[in-house]
């Protein structure tokens, strides 16, 4: 089963992306993605 999570930019804290991850995984996702507000590629982390 998969769980929906929201990814937020670490620079401007904008919540730009949603994704899914496995239910059993307890680690937080960290992905480098493009942020529209910052106009550059930044690190995005999973939020609560």
From TrEMBL:
Q: Does the keyword Ribosomal protein apply?
A: yes
Query: What UniProt keywords are attached to this protein's entry?
Result: Ribonucleoprotein, Ribosomal protein
N-terminal signal peptide = none
Q: Tell me the SUPFAM superfamilies matching this sequence.
A: Zn-binding ribosomal proteins
Q: Name one GO molecular function term.
A: structural constituent of ribosome
Q: Which Pfam families match?
A: Ribosomal_L33
Q: What InterPro entries does its record include?
A: Ribosomal_bL33 (IPR001705), Ribosomal_bL33_CS (IPR018264), Ribosomal_bL33_sf (IPR038584), Ribosomal_zn-bd (IPR011332)
Q: Name one GO cellular component term.
A: cytoplasm
Q: Which GO terms describe its biological process?
A: translation
Family (UniProt) = Belongs to the bacterial ribosomal protein bL33 family.
State what protein this is by name: Large ribosomal subunit protein bL33
What organism is listed for this UniProt entry? Tenuibacillus multivorans
Higher taxonomy = Bacteria, Bacillati, Bacillota, Bacilli, Bacillales
């Amino acid at each position: 089963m998969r769980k929906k999570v929201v990814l937020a930019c670490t620079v401007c804290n904008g919540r730009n992306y949603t994704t899914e991850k496995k239910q059993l995984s307890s680690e937080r996702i960290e992905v480098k993605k493009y942020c529209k507000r910052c106009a550059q590629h930044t690190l995005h982390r999973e939020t609560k």
